[in-house]
Amino acid sequence: LEDMDLWMKFHQIGTEMIITKSGRRMFPQCKIKVSGLIPYAKYLMLVDFVPMDNFRYKWNKDQWEVAGKAEPQLPCRTYVHPDSPAPGSHWMKEPVSFQKLKLTNNTLDQHGHIILHSMHRYKPRFHIVQADDLFSVRWSIFQVFSFPETVFTSVTAYQNEQITKLKIDNNPFAKGFREHGKNT
């Protein structure tokens, strides 16, 4: 996992990710460094999101607490990295970024965004599949990785003020919200 220090800062206070009808990019973004692939073999890189448990959460005063049973699980969507398929040498030359991945709460989404329920906890899973194309994935050799630091609660608005501050201080796209920005 790239940017481990940043992910740890968020993880220690309970990472939250905004989901919107039109889809929102993640910050921190999912970025992984890959090694050990066969340089000339073709691979697909995929990400899916799995529920951490069977609960719905609510923010109460200054912490997350269980607020009941989880909503029925949505059909699992997988985000395919746009460079897929590519040779192992391509994936290993620099960190693989899933920056274009978007999260949504729109159950009728037609754009291929990852559909999640708000106020639920999720974990991204990274799939590395040795395959020439999407159609041969079922019979392919694959590995699945996840990182505990990337677990997050999906929200439509940040609940924890510390998360809001961390996002503003560290996200290059949030510079307009910083104290020394033009929009004060």
From TrEMBL:
It is found in: Nucleus. Gene3D superfamilies: Transcription factor, T-box. It comes from the Eukaryota. GO terms for cellular component: chromatin; nucleus. GO terms for molecular function: DNA-binding transcription factor activity, RNA polymerase II-specific; RNA polymerase II cis-regulatory region sequence-specific DNA binding. It holds the Pfam family T-box. One of its GO terms (biological process) is anatomical structure morphogenesis. Keywords: Developmental protein, DNA-binding, Nucleus, Transcription, Transcription regulation. Its main location: nucleus. Residues 1-179 form the T-box domain. This is TBX6L protein. The lineage of its organism: Eukaryota, Metazoa, Chordata, Craniata, Vertebrata.
